[in-house]
Design brief:
Distance between the termini: 51 Å
Strand content: under 5%
Number of domains: 1
Shape: globular
Order of helices and strands: HEHHEHH
Helix content: over 70%
Structural class: mainly alpha
Number of helices: 5
Radius of gyration: 16 Å
Oligomer: single chain
Amino acid sequence: MEIANLKEEVSKLERILQNYNWCEMKITNKTILEKMSDHYQNLVHLQKMFDEKNYLNSKDFVNYYKELHQKLGIILSNKHLRIIAFHPKVVLKDNIKKVFQNYFRE
């Protein structure tokens, strides 16, 4: 029964990603889930810093975001970042969504 549930969940996730026109990403790190939890606090801190002080410009923020994911073993392309910035179904805090949008306008 568990295998059937997993297959159903995979199918559901594939449909969602197709809806976003999300292209495949290269994941180079097999221990990604462990590393994600380690680095999550860094991203939260960066987001708070940006929200409170406008401390970073859009380019620096997005480059940090890409670098953080690369450290985790996820290679984000500009196509992925454009989807994050402009797809209406990708929900982020308004300030953060604008940061990604400004990255492509600069």
